[in-house]
Amino acid sequence: MIEELRQKARELLEKGEVDLVIGYGEGSDPTRTMPVFIRRPEDCDRLVWNKYCYNNLTSYLTWPELKTAGKPAVVCKGCDAKAVVVLCKESQINREDVVVIGMSCEGVGEPLLGKCEFCDVRTPKNCDIVIGPEIEPLSKEKQYEDVEQLEGKDAADRWEFWRDQFSRCIKCYACRQACPLCYCTQCIVERNQPQWVPTSSHPKGNFAWNIMRAMHLAGRCIGCGECERVCPSNIPLMLANKKLAQVVKEQFGYESGYDIDEPLPMASFMPEDSDELFK
Amino acid sequence: MAEFKLNRDKLGELVKALKGEGYRVVAPVEQERTFVFEEVDDPGEIRLDVLRTKRSIKGWFFPRVEPTLSYEFDGQSVTCKSDLPESPPKTVIIGCRPCDAASLPMLDKLFDWDYRDEYWFKRREATTVISVACDAPDSYCFCTSVGGAPDGTAGADLVMKKTSSGDYLLEPATEKGTAIVEAAKSALDPATGNEEILVGEVPQRFDLGAVKPWLDDNFDHEYWKEISYKCLSCGVCAFVCPTCHCFDIQDESTLERGVRLKSWDSCCLPIFTRHGSGHNPRSTRDTRYRQRVMHKFTYYVDKFGVTACVGCGRCSAACPIDMNICTVVAGAAKLAETST
Predict the structure, then answer these.
(1) Domain locations in chain A?
(2) Phi, psi for B162 (deg, rounded to 5)
């Protein structure tokens, strides 16, 4: 697969179809990889593909610096490619302005990351090029088991759970910076005239930030899990994201990152929308 | 020369003895699949074998958020009171690595520069630091490239050195360290002088002497763009770093009362240098990442005569996209070599 990836990338650059390829390169140790931006066909041998290709590289697509860099191709796992769908739907990028290179993927990490256990896009969808064999999707039947387990607790225990988890937040905003859908040019926590959300990492500030981050991704989060992976305090951020995804699925029958034409649940109204959320 | 050693099975007794003397004991413990320094109740939780905790010990002197003063408004006048802790608890930090300990005297210079920061110094005075020499450094370590050593004593009051039998020789470096040995004598055994000390090797990764002159001359070098275009601009590197010390001051208030808070901040975050006018002199990732390197390897040296990096490798290990500061600085050193 690596050779095929390098070959495709080389062709894209040689033919002038793209100006740069955003992919994975060798990391500082064999269990890591580092994003690379490749502009010259002869540099395509720097691209790698292995089970340590964690990053969701689509988060680079909305960077102001990239707007002047020409047309990009981006190497995606199936989960990452879902972000491209959302970025297009939310008018952040034009689909024709990016070439998506999807990589067949049997999961990343050792042991496998949690998200990979319920992956239905091991063969990526919505890509321009797919590299690698067709891989059977996995069942998503038990994807909300961890959410349901937490919901089995009473409200006081859940409150305590999240209080303990959020108490470890150090407000480094790595969750936000790594997220392909946290693309606001000015995040609300950076609006400081007045300071709407407390920036300090005390309990109030941590609750405000973490709940707001999750809520802002309701109906949008594609489940790439980068926020949780990069968190230096190992806060289970995906539990909150998944809960909201579950609610949106139940209420609106919508799953984020699959269909480029389906209306966005949080940005559209339909008469048949459920009113259950407004109690 | 160590007079005493701690038998590997007697750590619990040591902790008990120190607690008996009124010390609060802080040590590396496991927390949610990672390691951090926390106050310890059960000595069995202490993990002296952990090379690199996720965050450094700086939070025990410079908390990630702390109130500095509070104020009240009664409709007529404002009354202020300082939130400076009168006497922080007598604390012993046990099990930090020599690189973490070395960060403390380095930061003393900053916190005693144009203004003496009593919030820092009161905790410094109340705290005794026991470091553990590194017997198994890893590929992220580069202390020897920035003037440290896996068995360095800078900033430590007492250094524990692991022996081939798994015990620890205790070498006091200050009076505070000697006081700890006295306080914990019941848990210690005499050293025989025949113990074999295990100290790992950290290869020198770059020539520090070559780095600063190159940085001074190459503020606008293409290198900064090349290395930092992929930086996510989060604050992980600064927040896990033992020497990053920038902070933000924010008032949180209602109409009647408020509190002035000092919180960790990071030069990599986009808002860090945004002016009131909206102008941001460091509006791009490369300028922000360059600042992080420049501050550590040249500005701090100009101001205080020391490099503000201890080579712990935390920022590199924690970086979401695998930016490795040692590689970055080694790259600068290499450019220095080729440009002369």
Answers:
(1) 2-131, 145-252
(2) -70, 140
